[in-house]
Each structure stands twice: as structure tokens, then as C-alpha cells.
UniProtKB/TrEMBL annotation:
<dbReference type="GO" id="GO:0045944">
    <property type="term" value="P:positive regulation of transcription by RNA polymerase II"/>
</dbReference>
<comment type="function">
    <text>Acts as an atypical protein-lysine deacetylase in vitro. Catalyzes the deacetylation of lysine residues using CoA as substrate, generating acetyl-CoA and the free amine of protein-lysine residues. Additional experiments are however required to confirm the protein-lysine deacetylase activity in vivo. Has hydrolase activity towards various surrogate p-nitrophenyl (pNp) substrates, such as pNp-butyrate, pNp-acetate and pNp-octanoate in vitro, with a strong preference for pNp-acetate. May activate transcription.</text>
</comment>
<dbReference type="Pfam" id="PF12697">
    <property type="entry name" value="Abhydrolase_6"/>
</dbReference>
<keyword id="KW-0808">Transferase</keyword>
<keyword id="KW-0597">Phosphoprotein</keyword>
<feature type="domain" description="AB hydrolase-1">
    <location>
        <begin position="18"/>
        <end position="59"/>
    </location>
</feature>
<comment type="subunit">
    <text>May interact with TAF1.</text>
</comment>
<dbReference type="GO" id="GO:0005737">
    <property type="term" value="C:cytoplasm"/>
</dbReference>
<keyword id="KW-0539">Nucleus</keyword>
<comment type="similarity">
    <text>Belongs to the AB hydrolase superfamily. ABHD14 family.</text>
</comment>
<dbReference type="GO" id="GO:0016787">
    <property type="term" value="F:hydrolase activity"/>
</dbReference>
<keyword id="KW-0012">Acyltransferase</keyword>
<dbReference type="InterPro" id="IPR000073">
    <property type="entry name" value="AB_hydrolase_1"/>
</dbReference>
<protein>
    <recommendedName>
        <fullName>Putative protein-lysine deacylase ABHD14B</fullName>
    </recommendedName>
</protein>
<dbReference type="GO" id="GO:0016746">
    <property type="term" value="F:acyltransferase activity"/>
</dbReference>
<dbReference type="InterPro" id="IPR029058">
    <property type="entry name" value="AB_hydrolase_fold"/>
</dbReference>
<keyword id="KW-0963">Cytoplasm</keyword>
Length: 137
């Protein structure tokens, strides 16, 4: 399967690798346009943003296939998670937050005045939340 990928090369020590995924109405280009790839690179991260199948510049998936358990439970228990949502999100904010609260090791950031794609509404605040979170890993 072909994925279109944006990535930013950095020089110096890489502390972490970060994979950025997009929502259903977006593409990897959003992360590039709002400076997330550059922000993460400056923070010492190898940042990669892909276009999921049928989005952005990626081709459509030929056919869905069974992949088994998407994320094994033990992995989810150990993986630190950052949950970011906007207080103006009338679509999924509270519902998603309630679903994600069961993650064992999570931090919640509420962005004031932001809607569902809160990272687009206020890139600077979302970048600060992300880099602050990554610095704790």
C-alpha cells in the first residue's frame, strides 16, 4: 500500500520519533502548514506525517483486510497518551475524552476557544502542549 509522507530531517541528536495522523477531513499537509513538523524537529524529534489511504496524496486502499487486534491491551497500558480537545468542540470533544480516560497513563489538555480540530484553531498552544508532554517522556 502506498502512503504519501511528509517528513522533516533534523541534524543532531534525535530524542524521540513522533508519528502524526490526521482526521477524516484532513491530510498530512495540515501538520506541515501549521508548523508542527518544524516545531517537533526543533525539539529534537524525528517527526513523520502520513496521508492515510484515500486521503491527501495517498492512493485508495484496494480492499480492507483483517489486521487482528489494532493495539494490544498491554501496549495501551504502557503507552503515555496526550488527549487534547477544544472546549468549543460540539462534535466529539467530551465523548472522545470520556472514551480515552480509560487509558492508564494519560494527560488531558483543554484548549480554550478551540473547536474539534483544535490544533488548527490554535497551533501555538497545541505545539506547546505537545512539546511539554514529549519532554516528560
Amino acid at each position: 500500500m502506498d502512503f504519501f509522507t511528509f517528513f522533516l530531517l533534523i541534524f543532531g541528536e534525535v530524542n524521540l520519533s513522533v508519528l502524526l495522523l490526521h482526521g477524516i477531513r484532513f491530510s498530512s499537509e495540515n501538520w506541515l502548514n501549521i508548523g508542527t513538523l518544524e516545531t517537533l524537529a526543533k525539539a529534537g524529534c524525528r517527526a513523520v506525517a502520513i496521508d492515510l489511504p484515500s486521503f491527501g496524496q495517498s492512493k485508495s486502499a484496494v480492499a480492507p483486510s483483517a489486521v487482528g487486534e489494532l493495539a494490544p491491551g498491554e501496549f495501551l497500558k504502557q503507552t503515555p497518551s496526550l488527549i487534547v480537545y477544544g472546549d468549543q468542540d460540539a462534535q466529539l470533544g467530551e465523548v472522545s475524552l470520556n472514551n480515552l480516560r480509560s487509558l492508564a497513563n494519560h494527560k488531558v489538555v483543554l484548549m480554550k476557544g478551540a473547536g474539534h480540530p483544535c490544533y488548527l484553531d490554535d497551533p501555538a498552544t497545541s505545539h506547546t502542549a505537545l512539546t511539554d508532554f514529549l519532554s516528560t517522556l
